[in-house]
Structure formats: C-alpha cells, structure tokens
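Lab notebook, page 48
Experiment: co-folding of the full assembly
Goal: obtain a model of how the components sit together before planning crosslinking
Operator: M.T.
Materials (sequences as entered):
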Amino acid sequence: MIKVAINGYGTVGKRVADAVAAQKDMKVVGVSKTRPNAEAFIAKQRGYPLYIADMSKKPAFEKAGLAVAGSVEDMCKAADIIVDATPGDVGKTNKPLYEKLGKKAIWQGGEDHEVAGFSFNSDCNYKDAIGKQFVRVVSCNTTGLCRIINTIDKEYGVAHVHAIMVRRGSDPGEIKKGPIDAVVLDPVTVPSHHGPDVQTVMPHISITTMAMIVPTTMMHLHAVQITTKKDVSRERVIELINRHPRLGLVKKSAGVKSTAELKEFAMDLNRPRSDLYENCIFEDSVYAKGKELCFFQAIHQEADIVVENVDAIRAMMGAEKDGAKSVAATNAALKFIPIQNYH
Ligand code: NAD
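Observation: model returned without errors.
Model output:
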C-alpha cells in the first residue's frame, strides 16, 4: 500500500483524499488543516488522521472535539508521498520540508512549473513521471485542454490551437470571491497563462489562449478551435471522444446546453460531490471542416485534476508502468464512467 499524506484539506485536498482512499493500492495516512472548520469534521468522519500546520492551534482543535495526530512534519514523515493541495503559492513554501525529509511530493496548478520542474497529465506524459521525486499536476483548465489536444494531435497532428476560457468566478463554497456582476478579463493581455501552461506538458503544441472570469461557480467553459495538419472528420472525433476514459460527450439526446444542467446530471448520477472528472464536450458543438475543428467543452474545476493526482502517485511510486492501466484502475475504483454512457 502506498502511504499518501494530503497537505491542505480544502476543495482539492478533500477530493484527492477520498479518491486515494478508494484505490486498492494506496491509503491516506493523514490530512492537514490550518483551523478547525467543517472540513476538519469531515476528515474525522472519514477516519483520516488529522495533522495541523500550526501546533499552537492544537487546543482550538481539541476544544472542538478534533483529535490532533501531530504536525505537518509528523504527517510527512509517516508518508511515502505527499499531495500538496495548499493554496497557490503556499505549496512552494513546503518544498524545503519535503526535500529535508527526502519525500516525494505532488503540487497543484496554482504553483509554477518550476516548483517541481515537471508538469503532469496522465494522458500526455505518464511514462515520464515514473520514479520522479517532484511533480506538478497542471490546473483544471490546462488538464482539460491537454486531454483533448493530445487526443487530436495523436490522430491528425495539431498545427495550432486557439482557445477561449470562460472561467468560473469562484468555487461554490468560496463566499469571499467574485465577480458578482461583471465579466472580468483575466488577464486583459493575450495570451493568458493557459497556453504556456499547456506547453509545460506538450512543448511542441502551438497554442494561443484568452481568458475571462464570469459570475458562476459551477464549471469553466472553453471555446476551442484547433487547426489540424490532416483533414479532420467529425464522426472520427466523436468516436475518439467516446473511447477516451476521461473525455465525456454531452449528447444531443440529453438536452443539456449549460453547465448548470451538467452539474444537475452529475448530482442525479450520484457522483461523489457531484464531481465531473471528465471533460464535458458538447456533441452538437463539434464542427469539422477541412483542417478546422471547433467545439465547446465544460470543465469541472474542482474535479478533473483529482483523478490525475491519483495517477501521478502511481507513476512516481513506480507502482504501475502503463499509464492506461493506471487511468483504468483509478476510474474503476471511483466507479467513474464518462457521462456519454448514461444517455
Ligand atoms: P482551498 O483554499 O480550497 O484549500 C486549501 C487548504 O489548505 C485549506 O484547507 C487551507 O486551510 C489549507 N492550508 C492553507 N495553508 C496551509 C498550510 N500552510 N499548510 C497546510 N494547509 C494549509 O484551495 P484549493 O482550491 O483546494 O486549491 C489548492 C491548490 O489546487 C491550488 O494550487 C489551486 O490553484 C489548485 N487547484 C484548485 C482548483 C479549484 O477549482 N479549487 C482546481 C485545480 C487546481
């Protein structure tokens, strides 16, 4: 069993913890919190040993009825590998600790590529992560872009990608973020960081991205235009999406044309936390003519990177050499079957 610690038990960390706990070959040896809040009680309910970043807060946790197993350093010592899901830019400050203890660590997309020197996506570069000490799982948007661009690149060759990201303003539980009544260009300048971020995984891909933030919490939406090297067939693209373990197809028959209806679908499917681990590509939007391919895809920001973290653990620990087998094992343990299989 691979012993996994989750440093930062928030939106991403709590999902990764449950996904790890569901796997046959790994277990959660601890999660860390900064303060005793509702998530800390969920950790207790799940039976995850609770460690804390600041030991001076131990009395506050104990007063709330939360047993503290020790410090973050104690937690890291008990683990083979640490998934760092602390907020962006906090993660890098933990690197000296992981180095001191000689532990493997995974960071999230809120950190720069340089923190690990290797940016990961199961679909694109699983093999290159085997045995690595440090890996960064790219952001939710970059993960969604990498999966589909790699799929099209392998089939047709990608000459150029142009993608526009309509990003959610905050996660549903974040009460202090916005906007609540604006479309914010973030950034105003072109390209946004997403294109260069895709290139940290696939340096050979030519890509330009633009991004804005809108007042919604459910999902991101991408408008993607890919120029291919060979003529592209709509039927074949749909077939490729259908066959892919992490590309979802929103078929016309579902009558779904919004992120809200997609999240409702996920809730009705009894997905954990109504998570959509797959890209949600709208079938009716898939347009192919000559060397041009266009589509809309929705990305559940809280979820798509969760399954990638599990695969990154397996690769780094050398527990599975075949990326496709790891993806299949991760998906099966979560009983995750892409949405097209339900309608
Ligand atoms: P979050 O704020 O929901 O959770 C972070 C958790 O870390 C909180 O529980 C916080 O209390 C804890 N924490 C803060 N400082 C800590 C410290 N020094 N030691 C231990 N714990 C600490 O953040 P999140 O949304 O889960 O984001 C985590 C990372 O994942 C970021 O890099 C982010 O960019 C990335 N990411 C987030 C999303 C998303 O939609 N939320 C999607 C993809 C990637």
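Interpretation: The longest strand covers residues 158-168.
Next step: discuss with group before ordering constructs.
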